[in-house]
Amino acid sequence: MVRVAPAANRRAAILGRVGDWTALRADLRAEALARGWSALGVTGVEPFAEARQHGLDAVAAGRMDGMPWMTAERVTASTDLGARYPWARSIVALAWPYRPVRAPEGFAEDRPAGRMAAYACMPGSDGGPAADYHDVLGRRCDELVDWLRGRAGEVRAKRFVDHGWAMDRAVAERAGIGFTGKHASLLTSTAGSYVLLAEIALSVPLPADTPSKKGCGTCAACIPACPTGAIVAPGVIDARRCISYLTIEHRGSIPIELRPLMGTWVFGCDLCQEACPINHRRAPAALETGAPRGGPVPSPDLVDLLALDQREFAERFAGSAVARSGRAALARNAAVALGNAGLVATIPALRRAVEQDPDPVVREAAAWALERIAGAARPPAIRVASASVEEPERRAGSHHDGSADAGSHQRDGIVLRRPPRVRESPADRNP
Ligand code: B12
Ligand code: SF4
Ligand code: SF4
């Protein structure tokens, strides 16, 4: 007859093998750091009450509109992993570093460069084309669990990377691997906010770490650095205004009043992170753009992106984060960015899109861009008459100094940035 040891005995046996849980946590942390993670912390499975309230408030106030999957039910479930996984005894929070990218310093008169968020450009493990971080982090989590099982025997585990039903920042914060900045991203002491987050619920009771006591202090540099006024209060993002949402999540046409504020971003946005002095000290070295490679790149050629057909898009972005948003969304974003770049030389490419793109949203965005370029190319007297807002003296994108926002105004408590004027000099055409 096979005898099954009671749960308590099995745990005791494991405990005997691994020494004690505190030592195991220390070894796990050391192992994670050796495997390239920039931080590992542990927290308990009790609900994340404060984060739940923030999430419910965001949904109720409409700040998550446009992401239909972001429901009150999801927020509630995401903040109580203990209820969903009753076997879980602790949660491990992990941060994976990635390298910032530099804004392009200039581009050819006829080939404007756009911008893609640094996380999307994270190279694959072989240094080749950028990989989807969900896959990279998922695999790394599984490897760590395998290591843990090698040490502690049978351990049940459930991992979450971004799209799992867990609130990644809240877990990371309570597990002590960083604090939430006023730009809402989690800042670590090892890589600033240039980290992607994952967590693993475990059936073993690793002891909890202490939450960080650090904070932003009096700094508020990221708030005026946001060109669309999406940081509506410290730590609070109105996703509907966030360029990251508009370029990646938003389906259909981008609201016209926000388009001129989006600069040349075509996938995500890093401006609030780039403005952050903690990142200036802590972030990993910037990614060298080097020779052009496939997939997402920090400064993609906008005319190329607009012209990609479905097959070319699939070939270029397969396996990367950009593949998720689809060809039409990327072409739409490229059209808006070309409108903001304002180069007369791109008119033929935009005309082609208006006439030939199979997607009506792309055709409309290209028509808007043509109108914007034509408006900027008119003689000054006409331009003044047609432009609703002229740019202030200070350059809209000079967010790095963190100074007061001379180019913004308030409406309904939301800081709005004035749209940049379409410029003549290529070097000035990025946010
Ligand atoms: C929905 C979502 C978005 C939305 C909404 C963002 C938002 N701030 O809510 C959009 C599409 C706009 C977005 C953009 C980005 N995202 Co996003 N996103 C998510 C997702 C899927 C859910 C976030 C969520 O639940 N939001 C609801 C709010 C209430 O929760 P929260 O963001 O965790 O809020 C924290 C703070 O803002 C604060 N807070 C919230 N409300 C309030 C109110 C008050 C009064 C106070 C004091 C604090 C406070 O408390 C929370 C921490 O406990 C997570 C993955 C996940 N499953 O968690 C990734 C995630 C947050 N995103 C991530 C990234 C990288 C980004 C971008 C940087 C990508 C880019 N370069 O374009 C931008 C950054 C924009 C920004 N400044 O936040 C990373 C963040 C990593 C980090 N270091 O923090 C995550 C964790 C994905 C991951 N696994 O790595 N994202
Ligand atoms: S700076 Fe960019 S990523 Fe940050 S909140 Fe504003 S629009 Fe979103
Ligand atoms: S820019 Fe300043 S306020 Fe914003 S997150 Fe960084 S330290 Fe905090």
Structure summarized in a few sentences:
37% of the residues lie in helices and 11% in strands. It is elongated, with a radius of gyration of 24 Å. It has 431 residues and is an alpha+beta fold.
Write the layout of secondary structure elements.
Layout (H helix, E strand, L loop, with lengths): L6 H12 L2 H14 L4 E5 L5 H12 L11 H7 L2 H4 L5 E8 L17 E2 L16 H20 L4 E4 L7 H7 L4 E2 L5 E2 L7 E8 L19 H4 L5 E3 L2 E2 L5 H7 L15 E3 L3 H4 L2 H6 L19 H6 L2 H8 L9 H15 L5 H10 L3 H18 L2 H7 L21 E4 L2 E4 L14
Parallel strand pairs: 3-10
Antiparallel strand pairs: 1-2, 2-7, 4-7, 5-6, 8-9, 11-12
The structure holds cobalamin (B12) and iron/sulfur cluster (2 copies).
Structure explained in plain terms:
- There is one protein chain.
- The chain is an alpha+beta fold and 431 residues long.
- It folds into two domains: 7-102 and 127-202, no CATH class; 222-428, no CATH class.
- It is built from 17 helices and twelve strands.
- The chain has helices at 7-18, 21-34, 49-60, 72-78, 81-84, 133-152, 168-174, 222-225, 243-249, 271-274, 277-282, 302-307, 310-317, 327-341, 347-356, 360-377, 380-386; strands at 39-43, 90-97, 115-116, 157-160, 179-180, 186-187, 195-202, 231-233, 236-237, 265-267, 408-411, 414-417.
- Strands 1-2-7-4 form a four-stranded antiparallel sheet, with helices on both faces. The protein has a two-stranded parallel sheet with strand order 3-10.
- Strand 11 (408-411) and strand 12 form a beta hairpin.
- It is elongated, with a radius of gyration of 24 Å.
- The chain starts with 6 loop residues before the first helix and ends in a 14-residue tail after the last strand.
- Residues 1-5 and 381-431 have low confidence and may be disordered.
